[in-house]
Amino acid sequence: GAVVSQHPSWVICKSGTSVKIECRSLDFQATTMFWYRQFPKQSLMLMATSNEGSKATYEQGVEKDKFLINHASLTLSTLTVTSAHPEDSSFYICSASGDIGRNTEAFFGQGTRLTVV
Amino acid sequence: LAKTTQPISMDSYEGQEVNITCSHNNIATNDYITWYQQFPSQGPRFIIQGYKTKVTNEVASLFIPADRKSSTLSLPRVSLSDTAVYYCLVGDYNTNAGKSTFGDGTTLTVKP
Fold it and tell me: Do residues A21 and A2 lie in contact, with contact meaning Cβ atoms separated by under 8 Å?
């Protein structure tokens, strides 16, 4: 089946620094990738949609200047949390869809645990 | 997107069949139903998907009545490793499945 890989699986950073999270589709071309955030004991919340080669579309309430998304190739999207603060600590998950499987099935990465201290 | 309602939590014992029901009263004609499983600190994993009647795969069955206003995920003979959060999603065929609206999910706890 389709595999989506995130890196790193977990990261700890100091407040005020920036962190980059990668999302890769390993065996298919992902024309569209999605980024979610999940706080403890809560559900996944969609943050943004990224299409290869174009600007990301952010959901209401998500700061585009804080959460920079780049989708420069059909297999890689990155999420950069800029000037991270403790309240940005969360579980970040990407999903991808493309030229594999049914168009009604989403493939999720394993997630990245971000802790800002 | 149609809003879904699921029980917040369920308990079961190893070897039992577990049925988790999801209500989606406002489901539209173009909507399909998908169930995902999520373990702690992992991304969601696709379990099963259907539009109407019954769908079965190697891990679960999905029962959808004729009015499609609800669906039931059936897990046969659960084991401890089935302890997870189960999400019911309703999505439009014309919308990319990766852009999903997750509800609160059902936390299933399987006891020995």
Answer: no
Size of interface A-B (CB pairs under 8 A): 69
First-to-final CA distance of chain B: 38
Q: What single DSSP character describes residue B5?
A: B
Distance CA A79, CA A72 (A): 12
Query: Is A46 close to B97, i.e. CB distance below 8 A?
Result: no
Per-residue model confidence as pLDDT tens digits over B10-68: 999 999 999 999 999 999 998 899 999 999 999 999 999 999 999 999 999 999 999 99
**Contact criterion met (CB below 8 Å) for A44 and A25:** no
Cβ–Cβ gap B43/A32 under 8 Å? no
Tokens of A51: 């299409």
Inspect the interface and report whether the beta carbons of B104 and A43 lie closer than 8 Å: yes
